[in-house]
TrEMBL record:
Region of interest: Disordered: 23-64
One example of a Gene Ontology biological process annotation: translation
The UniProt record lists the keyword Ligase: no
HAMAP family per the UniProt record, alphabetical: Ribosomal_bL35 (MF_00514)
Keywords, sorted A to Z: Ribonucleoprotein, Ribosomal protein
Name of the protein: Large ribosomal subunit protein bL35
Pfam families listed in its UniProt record: Ribosomal_L35p
Family statement: Belongs to the bacterial ribosomal protein bL35 family.
A GO CC term attached to the entry: cytosolic large ribosomal subunit
Source organism superkingdom: Bacteria
Source organism per UniProt: Geodermatophilus ruber
UniProt-recorded Gene Ontology molecular function terms: structural constituent of ribosome
């Protein structure tokens, strides 16, 4: 059987923590910062844990 390849698109967007959780960057945090409040920008800056429903699918793509 051939080995399963890592999905490179998923690998660039999701990181795995030491405890095995999957983290992703929040949406709306790339551009158009002029009209976003400082509070909103700070809130969006933090990475979020991937939802359990999506985590199962992503683990397959990442080969975990």
């Amino acid at each position: 059987m051939p080995k399963q390849k890592t999905h490179k698109g998923a690998a660039k967007r999701i990181r795995v923590t030491g405890g095995g959780k999957l983290m992703h960057e929040q949406a709306n945090n790339q551009h158009k910062f002029e009209y976003k409040s400082s509070t909103r920008k700070r809130r969006l800056d933090k990475d979020q844990v991937l939802s359990p429903a999506d985590a199962k699918r992503m683990k397959k793509l990442l080969g975990l």
